[in-house]
Amino acid sequence: MKSNEIKKAGLKYFTIHGYEGASLSQIAEEVGIKKQSIYAHFKGKDDLFLQVLRDAKEADLSSKLEYFSKIDSRNPEKDLYGFLQLVIDLFQKNEQLKFWLRMSFFPPAHLAEAIDKEVFDIEEKVQAILESKFQDWIDAKVIVEEVAKTPTLAFLGIVDSIMLELVYGNDEKRLKDKLEASWTVFWRGISHP
Amino acid sequence: MKSNEIKKAGLKYFTIHGYEGASLSQIAEEVGIKKQSIYAHFKGKDDLFLQVLRDAKEADLSSKLEYFSKIDSRNPEKDLYGFLQLVIDLFQKNEQLKFWLRMSFFPPAHLAEAIDKEVFDIEEKVQAILESKFQDWIDAKVIVEEVAKTPTLAFLGIVDSIMLELVYGNDEKRLKDKLEASWTVFWRGISHP
DNA sequence: CTAAATCTAACGAACGTTCGTTAGTTATAC
DNA sequence: GTATAACTAACGAACGTTCGTTAGATTTAG
């Protein structure tokens, strides 16, 4: 299907140059067609963008949901650190998470509302799952905390900072250092009385 | 000085729409002149952008340096939390930090190299100062840690995540919650044995 | 089985608009 | 009276988009 090739090229250039900086002719050239031909598959630039966005959202969400459904809920140290590894993997394997991150925080102005809705949706779901996991661990006295929301938000903060480090450069060493540092302090912070 | 007005308008639109999405006519209109008149003050779009960038960098750096020069180095809990408050203040008072954040992570492709150099410079300096502060606190046995780099990187991670929260929405409540959660876990993580 | 109709995917050409930029001219300020 | 900073006018290039058309495959009808 040619549509998928176009979406793939769109994902690439939207990620690198942003919505305004990516041009249809550039995207078409990548696929080997003229920019007018894109209109046989999409209504226009906005349509292409929004389809790429929804694909990225779905991929991101389903990867995370799948991970959460697989963990055993008895070993928070392994499960939480594994989630950070998952995020790093997703980021490096496919471009969708990078695209998603960029558009979450710096959306094209005229689509900001539509994008915000999707972002809120995914954020809400992930937070809800994490919070219930933390609650389980608190009940099982595996970690020490009064309210589940505190470690949840702190952990999501680490996820964000790791993603920023991923988008920043490709300083593999610095990423590893930062992950280790954040994780060490975080884990000590929620597991020690 | 009209140049400053132009830079101020440039800062605004570069921050909202990014380099490619901001147009000189838009910027000129904000100031009340025609876009061609910008060329009496700047060589072109790149020149304007880079001057805005350097102003933002300088403002960001000097605010942070000033803060570090004022703290007494005996009370890390107050000093570190105060730094997070400073970042939030800077972000909400002037647009420069938001601009700086956007361009650090999603620079226009043809200026990426020049921008990266500035970003690396400021990052390096802040990290060096923080690391030496942490070393002082470790030596004074106010915090518990072996190497200063670990709490430094973990703290910088919190700074990043707070900035992302600031750029995201203006959910004041969520920002407060996240700050409190990250800080609680972090402080417990570096102060408890 | 063949002929007509429909669908798919691409094309060149052109649309109106906006972009950043340059040149030459006029007004303002010291 | 000279510089500075604004203006008008115009530039080539690129943008997203629409148009009419073509070539080939697939489906439908007689």
From TrEMBL, chains A, B:
Keyword set, alphabetical order: DNA-binding, Transcription, Transcription regulation
InterPro entries: Homeodomain-like_sf, HTH-type_TetR-like_transc_reg, HTH_TetR, Tet_transcr_reg_TetR-rel_C_sf
PROSITE patterns on file: HTH_TETR_2 (PS50977)
Gene3D superfamilies found in the cross-reference section: Homeodomain-like (1.10.10.60), Tetracycline Repressor, domain 2 (1.10.357.10)
DNA-binding region: 23-42
Domain HTH tetR-type: 1-60
PANTHER family referenced in this protein's UniProt entry, alphabetically: HTH-TYPE TRANSCRIPTIONAL REGULATOR RUTR, MYCOFACTOCIN BIOSYNTHESIS TRANSCRIPTIONAL REGULATOR MFTR-RELATED
Protein name: TetR/AcrR family transcriptional regulator
